[in-house]
TrEMBL record:
Major site of localization recorded for this protein: other
Official protein name in the record: Phosducin
GO BP field: regulation of G protein-coupled receptor signaling pathway; visual perception
Family to which this protein belongs: Belongs to the phosducin family.
Chain segments carrying region Disordered: 24-46
Originating species: Struthio camelus australis
Localization of this protein: Cell projection, Cilium, Photoreceptor outer segment; Cytoplasm, Cytosol; Nucleus; Photoreceptor inner segment
Cytoplasm keyword on record: yes
One Gene Ontology cellular component annotation held by this UniProt entry: photoreceptor inner segment
Keywords of the record: Cell projection, Cilium, Cytoplasm, Nucleus, Phosphoprotein, Sensory transduction, Vision
Pfam family, one: Phosducin
């Protein structure tokens, strides 16, 4: 709690307009945002008076509800952005990558960031369900930019005998170079016609997709309920 309070005080001080706050109040906020101000060992009374003064002055400052609420909204927005940035570390993609050969296939798996989920679609032209799955993964790649979505023809993997037409389309899911899931003839899990939402639900059943990314935070366009 102390860290949050001090961070809020600093944010309020930094965000105040130069003409909207008196010099005395600015100085009070500056002092409150620096709680580790040092005092000499013999200055205990001064330190106690300082702390009491800050408490009273802080109470006076927060009485301006309209001004404080506007600043609080900005502070909440910044906290949400900071949290989202921390949770969204790692490389970003946003597209379905075409792998040309087995070497690129191995590199996409083994040389990727250890926290990145890599989903590879093994397909061939003319195989039922492959085109629909490629279209679905293209849509999901745009929505889950922290996931690396790839596709490669079975004949280009260098192990075409392992990926016969009977097992296509196949989805392989890797993380940290390790195979997490292997779905053969995956289109059989869906109806005759399927779309990105169906593939998304299927992958979510196995916990293979991260949480959806937060929408962009527009200036001032955030409901308090959403923030909380």
């Amino acid at each position: 709690p102390k860290g949050v309070i001090n961070d809020w005080r600093k944010f309020k001080l930094e965000s105040e307009d130069g003409d909207s706050l008196s010099l005395s109040k600015k100085e009070i906020l500056r002092q409150m945002s620096s709680p580790h101000r040092s005092f000499s060992k013999d200055d205990k009374d001064t330190r106690e008076r300082f702390c009491r003064k800050m408490s009273m002055q802080e109470y006076e400052l927060i009485q301006d509800e309209k001004e404080d609420e506007s600043c609080l909204q900005k502070y909440r927005k910044r906290c949400m952005q900071d949290m989202h940035q921390r949770l969204s570390f790692g490389p970003k993609y946003g597209y379905l990558c075409e792998l040309q050969n087995g070497e690129q296939f191995l590199e996409a798996i083994e040389k990727e960031h250890k926290t990145t989920t890599v989903i590879v679609h093994i397909y061939e032209d003319g195989i039922k369900g492959c085109d629909a799955l490629n279209n679905s993964l293209t849509c999901l790649a745009a929505e889950y930019s922290t996931v690396k979505f790839c596709k490669i023809k079975a004949s280009s993997t260098g192990a075409g005998d392992r990926f016969s037409n009977e097992v296509l389309p196949t989805l392989l899911v890797y993380k940290g170079g390790e195979l997490l899931s292997n779905f053969i003839s995956v289109s059989e899990q869906f109806s005759e016609e399927f779309f990105a939402v169906d593939v998304e639900s299927f992958l979510n059943e196995y916990g293979l997709l991260p949480e959806r990314e937060l929408p962009a935070l527009e200036n001032g366009n955030m409901d308090e309920q959403d923030v909380e």
